Amino acid sequence: MAEFFVAGETLVDFVPGPGATLREVDGYAHRPGGAPANVAVGLARLGSPPAFWTRLGDDSFGAFLAETLADEGIPETHVERVEGKTTLAVVSPPDARGPRFGFYGSRDVTFGFGPDSVPTEALATPDGEASPEGRSLGEASPGGADAPPWVHLGGAALTHPSGRAATRELLSAATEAGCPVSFDVNYRADLVPDGDAAAVSTAVREAVAASDVALCSDEDVAAAGLSTKEGTELARDLLDAGAHTAVVTQGDEGAVAVGSAAAPWGPATARHDGFAVEAVDATGAGDAFTAGFLSRIAGARVDESGDGDRDGSALRAALAYGNATAALSVGSVGSMGSIPSREAVESFLAERE
After folding, report:
1. pTM to 2 decimal places
2. From CA 239, how far away is CA 246, in angstroms rounded?
3. Rounded-to-integer distance, Cα 107 and Cα 110, Å
4. Quick one: where's region Disordered (predicted)?
5. Residue 160: Cβ within 10 Å count
6. Closest CA to 184 of 26, 46, 34
7. Pairing relation of β-strands 255-259 and 269-272?
8. What's the mean pLDDT in 257-282?
9. 93-144 pLDDT, tens digit each
10. Fold adopted by 4-352
11. Which among 111, 13, 17 has a CA at the least distance from the CA of 65?
């Protein structure tokens, strides 16, 4: 049984070559991507290959992505191949106006997860039973003999009506199975059909409320209409929305995390300012951070007194690990392909310490 269960889109990023504007760019390179797919591969490279529920088209891009996931050690059990064109995400050059990503292809293929297809069997404990009283973060490390998997999902699927329904079903099943849940807001306004903004924002709020850990950037939450605050104040808004731990990434300024009294570490606040590195391509750096953060925080435990880690050391260590993973990922072009191994992250941290 996998330690993690990740759900969401896999797509192809078209990354521009050198040039500040589209007029100056000579061409684009295709790279595997999609926020949940990047997190899944990141977890695999950091030592915890997850089960991954995703959808791929039956075109050549879908075949390319299927081969990539297999090469990364992702089981094909929950990788659906469906008729249609795989979504392409075209990354804008640094100085281009407008959104950072433009999406092309079939939204139905990539984001149209079926609510009747939620692989609930993947969420049960090894004996086939749900954890009777649920499982809190930190209560046991993932993958233990009596532990259901940690569930991670992203917000892009919420832009599709079927994807919203499937996400609700998955969250409900995860709660019933006692799985800890993390949710990456990852709001992409360009994916929201005209007239659906309110429905998508409502679905994002519901997902935050149903999750243990909510992750986002300031821009994600502002675009989704959830909050206009930043940093620690934004994290506290997410706690008010229902999550017991909130993580806000702030690019080259690092990240902040806040836990409520319901979190295993108690009402703790932690910040890590990140690492100074030369960035070649920041595409997918947030996903690399998420993989690193989850791989570290999933093993955190409540201390013997039961009071939790109230000085924030567990959160701070997870932020450092996430920031190190992200820092190493920006050194080359592409999102998924640039995520480092566990050995590389640990070596990087040892050098910086």
Report:
1. 0.91
2. 6
3. 5
4. 115-155
5. 23
6. 34
7. antiparallel
8. 89
9. 888 877 788 899 889 999 999 999 999 999 976 555 544 444 444 443 444 5
10. UDP-N-acetylmuramoyl-L-alanine:D-glutamate ligase (3.40.1190)
11. 13
